[in-house]
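Design review, sub-item: ligand-bound model
Attendees: FS, YL, KQ
YL presented the inputs for the flavin-adenine dinucleotide complex:
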Amino acid sequence: MSTFDESYDFVVVGSGGGSMCAGLVLRRAGKSVLILEKTALIGGTTARSGGVMWIPNNRFMKRDGVPDSKEQAMAYMDAVIGDHNDTPGATRARREAYVDNGAEMVDFLVDQGIKLNRVSYWPDYNDELPGSSEQGRTVVAELFNVNELGEQKAKLRPNFIPIMSTLDEMLKLRFIKKSWESKRIAVRFGLRTIWAKLTGKHYVTAGAALQGRMFQAALKAGIEFRTEASVKELVVENNAVKGVVVEIDGKAMRIGARAGVLVNAGGFAQNQEMRDKYIPHTSTKWTNTTEGDTGEMIREMMRHGAAIAQMEEMVGNQMSIPPGMENDAVKPVVQGVTAAPHAILVDQSGVRYMNEAGSYMTYCQGMLARHKTVPAVPSYAIMDMQYMKNYGLVTPLPTTKRPQEWFDSGYMKKADTIEELATMLKMEPATLRATVDRFNGFVAKNHDDDFNRGDRAYDRWLGDRYHEKNASLGSISEGPFYAVPVVPGDVGTYGGVVTDANARVLREDGYPIEGLYATGVSTASVMGRAYAGAGASVGPSFVWGYVAAKHVLAQS
Ligand SMILES: Cc1cc2nc3c(=O)[nH]c(=O)nc-3n(C[C@H](O)[C@H](O)[C@H](O)COP(=O)(O)OP(=O)(O)OC[C@H]3O[C@@H](n4cnc5c(N)ncnc54)[C@H](O)[C@@H]3O)c2cc1C
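KQ shared the predicted structure:
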């Protein structure tokens, strides 16, 4: 029999999305809960993120009259994810459990006083498929006054968005030059910032608002936290997980978990060795995950016989990194750039190869797939002066002026003609010329015959809704012409241990490892190799945390 320095009913490894959600369910039933976090800050990459959760058929959709149902959500997940032998994280049973528990989980959090809402319009990423929702299934936290955390405020991991603006507002702010609604939002946001300063409030948004609200509720409910507490081992006895070994202040402590252990320790985006093995041609230099995303808990679960799957997948996020920003914690993503008019993406031979307005995951999958036959890492975004006048690039707001260092370093190329630009990029001038001519031909007939860019609501949402004819198509015709490299960056890996519809970790033989649950990107995603819509990573982390806690209670 193992002896422990301390024991709790439930121990969570990592303070990611599902951790506090699971903890709240268990605390409400009177169970003791300890969350162990390796870094000095609570919240994981979830706190840094947009904090969007993709939750079908949720209460806010009902409130706003946005149609959805279990059947509709399942039809969409069937279509976008499908049944494949090599995606055991995304079985139909798991997809159904996700839909069933997602909306219930949101109701539970609202009952716990977590203020949530939806973004008014954020189409599912494959809205061309049956069962999709054009308005979207996103759930986000309302702005959170982080000062309400008192002394614990410093423990919350900050977000990448420094302004006191909701995601809904931010998504509209980018059209400030063209829309009165955006201008009104800018005024509202300005007044809110002044009012907050005068009244001693500090609002945080996105993932920090979500995890800040969760942290506040967790502390109130009596969940215990230890930071700078790195879990090194699972304690396994008679094939059942009984606790963990954690290093705190350089000392190993054994902590017992009477009812179970939940691993919510993120993925392996910060581990180059694991990347080289599972996702070659990608780099820790191109990830926006937090520093704790190093994958050791996936390896520790494997050591105890856990099956792994979908390890080649990541939540790709196309990046273009100018000089001086290489070491920024959050590097510039260029999601909207080649979805906007007057821009395309080409491989190193100067050829377009995909719909550049697809979801970030599909986009990076496309780059890596292309790279198998034609060098495409990096690929190049090609833009003209119309683009530069109207849209952002690295900076959110449009400007025709770019730092001289961008040109001097060779990061950004600028030329008077497409042929000259091609020469600077070491491409055959006639090839790039032909690519641009063909694209301009599609713009003229208002249809991209090669890749159907701009056909979907999602493409148009990502583009410029105020652009005449098609929000995603505009000619590349007004010099000078510009190019920047684009790499397949990421916001996290998407494969890990295989779990069942109760979030239990499974062995290779399909049987669960008793006492061991996992959620978030430590697991093989319920989304398989797809990204159903905004929040397809944080949403599952919360939902499977909730499901694990329910299963624990059902056993006790
Ligand atoms: C800028 C940005 C924006 C994003 N926006 C969204 C979005 O809006 N919606 C969405 O769905 N996804 C988004 N993503 C992706 C998403 O944030 C992550 O995939 C998701 O948060 C992962 O959550 P998780 O719960 O699995 O783990 P995390 O939130 O990363 O938490 C894992 C925690 O475990 C800790 N840990 C690791 N190992 C140990 C150990 N051995 N012992 C103790 N602790 C350990 C880590 O330090 C970390 O704090 C975004 C990502 C970024 C970077």
